[in-house]
Amino acid sequence: MRKLSLLALSSLLVPQIVWAQPDTQSSYRLLKLDGRVVKWGEPTLGTATELTYGFITEPTQFDDARNCQTTGSLTPILENNKIPESEFLAAATNAFAMWESVSGIRFRKTDHTEVADILIGSDLGNHGWAHADVLSVPSGVEVDTITRGLVCLSTNKVWNVGFGKNENGQDLQYTLTHEIGHAIGLNHASPFGQIMSFNYGEAFADLQQGDIDGVRRLYGMPTLSHNTLATAEQTPLR
To answer: Would you indicate the residue range of the signal peptide (predicted)?
Structure first.
């Protein structure tokens, strides 16, 4: 049985979200589909996993998705906002690295999108700013298993790399970090104060304590040292 979630990053509360009760007193919420927590890898809370991610390069239809159903290349977003591909790749690498640096998740970029766990592309439907979609299957044990994550960005919004560049735009790294959080099993937290809060803001660029507590609840503590900044030359999107 497939289970889908409706997740979005917006300047307004998304009314379709069904809020779960906090798992601890810290400001995080685990994503629950059909009342069950979902995560990648071993279906046990606190266990590490390795994931791949890739970038969609051509129009792709996901008929079993609620969000990001019709996706495409990120090129129009970069061209419309005059963002060099290298800057976008650095922002995406940093977004994944932030989650990796504080938890037991390891991420690896792949050019083979047909096997990537998490796919990132443009939202050809242009519904809001950005969305994530999670597909999971029952595990029969403690939690259900995520089998696919989608992240999509609107082509008709203003995007920046960095804060304070355009009051009508949103920072790509912050937005990607938020949506990746959904794709790995985190729900919206409080209105403000965490990367996973449902309101966009530029008061901070790093994961906050609730974000860290949430991802560690799912995947445990980091087991290796990680770089948190993209300093190496990045392979192209396509």
So the answer is: 1-20
